[in-house]
Task: structure prediction
Amino acid sequence: MAAGPTAPIPIMRPHLPPLEPFTAIVAELFETRRLSNFAKYTRLLEERAAVVLDHPSPSSVSSCDVGLTLAWRALECPPGEVIVPSFTFCSTVNALRWNGLEPVFADVDPQTYCLDPDDVQRRITTRTVGIAAVHVFGLPAPIAPLEGLAREHGLKLVFDAAHGLGGRYQGKALGGFGDASVFSLSGTKLVTGGEGALATFRDPAVAERFTYLRAYGFKADYNCRYIGLNGKLSELNAALGWLSLDLLESALARRQDQVQRYRQALVDCPDVSWQAVPAGCIHGYKDLAVRFRTPEQRAAVEAALTAGGIMTKRYFLPVHRMDAYRDWARTRLPVTDQLSERLLCIPLYHDLAEDGIEAIAGIIRTSLKRTAARHWAA
Ligand SMILES: Cc1ncc(COP(=O)(O)O)c(C=O)c1O
Result:
């Protein structure tokens, strides 16, 4: 039997910059008392993000969840239906409901786990006003076909790019696609500000509206021009995010190396498969999901890893299966259901050591062998 790790292994650990430059900034902020309201570090974060996201002027916001909600608001989408994957985190869909938009769930591609453009096309009606797509686990969604559909049918296209930092599509970072994209800087992402997000828009007028909406709806004069929210990012979060964006390239390279190690270690397991990465895409690997041939194999591996002190997660729980969305689950989503019964996210973070990866892969391999032996004995 493969030896387990000696200490518990979490599913993720934030990757942080050196402490010293951050403490110097904290000292400066204690001196200047400029803790919020789009001061020095919010500006620096936005400037650095422009380079990292291939977009001239990203806007900071307090979280991806709030950013998505306000992005749809800024687009001034008419009432109607928005086609959206169920295989996502609830924020993608909650953002629609906060704007009174009606989610129409579409299925995902069985190889990439991202929104399936053919299924989107089948669900477009005269009531459709938009498409919400997700860069699942950091893999770019099928951007060109979705942009084609949006153009052809006059629909708004918003990318939930919560996992999108580090991903690239046809040579470009993901900030310049669709009508809007929102990238998370929460503590579970490749690089983090603790909390926070960055939003990008195609139309500068929409971007300008967003900058009102994220600050209650007004600028300086207390006169609400739009009905906004407090979506401001604090200077402390902005400073940490600014320092952390410098780590993105090395964080991405490290994760790609770790993913290759996992795949190599499990190359002889025919019951294990991986999210496909289409030509022209760079996967950001915010998460790494192992896909098992059967739900029973997933349950067995999950139990074995838990017993070995290794954290995993069943991710995503499809939104159409959540209590708040049962009434919106109007058609079958076979690929989404299949994936949600077979995927297991395993630990992936910057300082996960090689022997940790070997130990995790060893437990997966041993557990699969045991499950197969029980199956044949039955
Ligand atoms: C796909 C997706 N969208 C949105 C969010 C929300 O991001 P945040 O925590 O920055 O609000 C998450 C959170 O991880 C997510 O996974």
